[in-house]
Design a protein that fits this description.
NiRdtase/SiRdtase_haem-b_fer; 5-stranded antiparallel sheet; binds iron/sulfur cluster; about 550 residues; metal-binding; 5-stranded mixed sheet; alpha+beta; 19 strands; 14 helices
């Protein structure tokens, strides 16, 4: 397979697509990217901004290109949600950054985790969050400290490059890749090849918008292929050969859409080229007129999978891919890899729940120690804000479970602890309207108190604004932050689900809940379910 290049152009112009002849920027973000590639900011941080400090940063870099190196300005403390829409960006931010460390495939060694932990405690006031994209996010970062932070991260093979921005973000992978015996195939080499070949490649550093990828052979579909821009899902073809089913065009935010199957079978050795081909189609044909109409899902909505496949094959791959099968239905819809799971080598993986991803630097270091004490120092992040420690022998499982529980890291959590997620929210996010993580923690504790023993899976996702970073549209009960009668509150969306019966949660117009009333609301909904459910009926059904 030759490397993907665009081989034809049409004259028709449209939404600012490069392939159709538009090269003049149509909005300020496109102008910013044309003036200087986002990756250029790295050198300016090292040479200039680390010395001038926050006040010396060019505004185009500060609120634009910094993202290409995983840096976002942080929301100033104490600004209420009602001010979010009326203040200018510079009025909302303080002189600190959020720094996102990308963890492709969610794979970490104890040494790598200790480095992240040390950066959190030394430079980030001890705050650290595991995100639902398998990253770790730090806060309170000063620009003066970034060169030293990068030096430490890069010394252990970690990076913040393209962790944000209009770039190929972290590649999701199954946290149990290579260790579970029921996986279709181990996608670790494919994830590594894409990162090795394309991370920081300027051919792909100016995309119309962010580009989220997942490559996984997990039979539980734990990387949520339905909501990625591009996803490779492990399948076996008719000959029994393991490879991938290609999905394109998923994404949530304000216009949620599930990815669609392209219908091709991708061999493991073709993944990197096909990934680059899809990325290049997006780069060249993606819409660059409006930021809110730029994700690849909009192109897919207009083209459909047949045309996408044709353009990908004809113009970028220069060969036809064979038709392939759809993924098989998983045995369960529980995708989060929480609990004790048998590894193929006879040891065990212990997946455990934090409180909506919040953990902190000190505790990350403790997890690294425990992973070495009870396993072989291998830790994984999940796409549900959880962590997994690998390689725990049978006779050490209960001791490890107890040692984690001492730190409130629960291998056997309640349904509510296990299945509640929350985005960053007003604590640090400039776009937020409401507080999320603290609220979700209180909600979880309250539901555990009011509904002890509730054992049916139910996902509760708490989001600070409509951007859906914590996926309110795919939760059984999704909370979208908004002002309700002048107070922080939520619009409720019910019935969202990922899996073979994927559905976008329905917005219930009358269901707007003040933040103080969310426990009452969820309790009412769940008690209604308990009262009326039939034998074996799940909450999602
Ligand atoms: Fe910020 Fe909104 Fe994303 Fe939450 S959903 S992290 S508030 S942008």
């Amino acid at each position: 397979m030759s490397s993907p290049t665009r081989s034809s152009r049409t004259a028709q112009k449209g939404q600012g697509q490069w392939a159709l002849g538009y090269r003049e920027p149509l909005n300020p973000n496109e102008r910013m990217k044309k003036d200087s590639d986002g990756l250029d900011v790295r050198q300016r941080i090292l040479d200039v901004y680390a010395h001038t400090g926050f006040d010396g940063i060019d505004p185009g870099d500060l609120r634009g290109r910094m993202r290409w190196m995983g840096l976002y300005t942080q929301r100033a403390q104490g600004i209420p949600g009602g001010k979010t829409a009326v203040l200018e960006p510079e009025e909302l931010e303080d002189a600190y950054f959020m720094l996102r460390v990308r963890i492709d495939g969610g794979q970490l060694s104890a040494d790598q985790l200790r480095v992240i932990a040390g950066i959190s405690t030394e430079f980030g006031r001890g705050v650290a969050d595991v995100t639902d994209r398998q990253n770790v996010q730090l806060h309170w970062i000063r620009i003066e400290d970034v060169p030293e932070i990068w030096r430490r991260l890069e010394a252990v093979g970690l990076s913040t490059t393209e962790a944000c921005g209009d770039t190929p973000r972290v590649i999701l992978g199954c946290p149990l890749a290579g260790v579970l015996d029921d996986e279709v195939l181990d996608a670790t080499p494919a994830v590594a090849e894409v990162v090795e070949k394309y991370l920081g490649d300027r051919e792909y550093s100016n995309l119309p918008r962010k580009f989220k990828s997942s490559i996984s052979g997990c039979s539980h579909h734990c990387t949520n292929h339905e909501i990625n821009d591009v996803a490779f899902v492990g399948v076996r073809n008719a000959a029994g050969e393991a490879g991938y089913d290609l999905w394109v065009g998923g994404g949530l935010s304000t216009n949620p859409r599930f990815a669609e199957r392209i219908g091709v079978f991708v061999r493991p050795d073709q993944v990197a080229d096909v990934w680059a081909g899809v990325c290049a189609v997006f780069r060249d044909y993606g819409y660059r007129r409006s930021r809110t109409h730029a994700r690849i899902k909009f192109l897919m909505a207009d083209w459909g999978p047949e045309k996408f496949r044709q353009v990908l094959q004809d113009e970028y791959l220069h060969e036809a891919l064979p038709d392939g099968p759809a993924p098989e239905r998983p045995a369960t819809d529980q995708r989060d890899h929480v609990g004790v799971m048998k590894q193929v080598d006879g040891t065990n993986a212990l997946g455990f729940a934090l409180h909506t991803g919040r953990i902190g630097g000190e505790l990350l270091a403790t997890v690294a120690d425990l992973a070495e004490q009870y396993g072989r120092g291998r830790i994984r992040t999940t796409a549900d804000q959880k962590l997994v420690v690998l390689d725990v022998p049978d006779d050490a499982v209960e001791a490890a479970v107890a040692a984690l529980a001492e730190h409130d890291l629960l291998v056997r959590p309640s349904v509510f602890r296990r299945q509640t997620m929350a985005c960053t929210g007003i604590e640090f996010c400039k776009l937020a309207i409401v507080e999320t993580k603290g609220h979700a923690k209180e909600l979880t504790a309250e539901l555990e108190r009011r509904l002890p023993g509730f054992d049916t899976p139910v996902t509760i996702n708490v989001n600070g604004c409509p951007n859906s970073c914590a996926r309110f549209q795919t939760a059984d009960i999704g909370f979208k932050g908004m002002m309700v009668a002048g107070e922080e509150g939520f619009q409720v969306h019910l019935g969202g689900h990922l899996g073979f019966e994927s559905s976008i949660g329905r917005k219930l117009r009358g269901h707007k809940v003040a933040a103080a009333d969310t426990a009452d609301y969820v309790e009412r909904v769940l008690r209604g379910y308990l009262e009326h459910r039939s034998e074996g009926e799940t909450f999602a059904a």
